[in-house]
Amino acid sequence: MPRIDHPVEDTADTVVWKGPLGRADHSVLRVPDLETALPWYRSMLGLFPIERRGDTVFLASPVSGRTVLGLTQGGTGLEYTSFTARTAESFQAVAAKLDGRNVRTTVDGTTRPGIRDAFRVDLPSGHIFEVVQPAAVEPSTPIAGEYRPGSIDVRTSHLQLRTTDVKQLTDFLGVLGFRSSLYVPLGESDGYYLQFLRVNEFHHQVAILTGREGTHHVALEVDEADFWKFLDNLVVTKFGAEYGPVRHHEGNMLSIYVRDPFGNRLEITSTMEMVGFDYAPHTANQPFWYHMNMWGPQPPETWEQEWM
Ligand SMILES: [Fe+2]
Questions:
Q1: 65 CA to centre of ligand 1 in angstroms
Q2: I need a surface site. Which of 141, 245, 301, 304 has the fewest CB within 10 A?
Q3: How far apart are CA 63 and CA 198, in angstroms?
């Protein structure tokens, strides 16, 4: 159902204790064939193509009108993921911090509609992150003619990156304002096998695992009732999930994984735990199977072999 929003306007004072970034804003995925992709994303998730910019079509939730994904013509995988800055000053502060470390940022005019300012940065792992400053506080507004009974509100959640150097990427994202929620040390070294990072009070917006460089999945969040609606929609579309439903230990999340017709892996998730801004990093202390799925069934082989 449409949410009644009470958008919070951050100030220089709140940035001091909340940090410079607000949330994951949207991700852009590459697809080899937009004409096949657009109907698929619409029938699976109800995402509405709200605007085309160059080779990228931006998709919005019919319930909130907010852009959560973009699809860009050519190949597969993640083009970039975008995070909001809380204020104009925190946007400038993050850019200045990167500048001070001689990290080059670039401006690309193809970000989503409604953005006043944006820059992109190449991560050491080869991924691209974008920092955006929305033009205004954006209330939730259903899309006229698209919202209908049963519409699911799809929101941006997190993404899982793979890299051979989790510590290097963790340290780099720390400059942008990411904080650790949970990690697994890499043997006796000061490195990490995995790392869960957040920019707000929820458990994670970025997960980093050791492995061949790439993007394992992009996660979209729905309300818990809508999670089960999404599963029942699979009955009708006859498009089988790759894995799930599961209950992850990290973040106590309901999740199911589907791959679009080109292999891009999406996680549909709900009920991520709110841990607070000042949550201290924890180390994982459960058996592996319990981390993945407290209900038991473990991922298929494709999980550890294939990603974008
Ligand atoms: Fe995930």
A1: 24
A2: 301
A3: 26
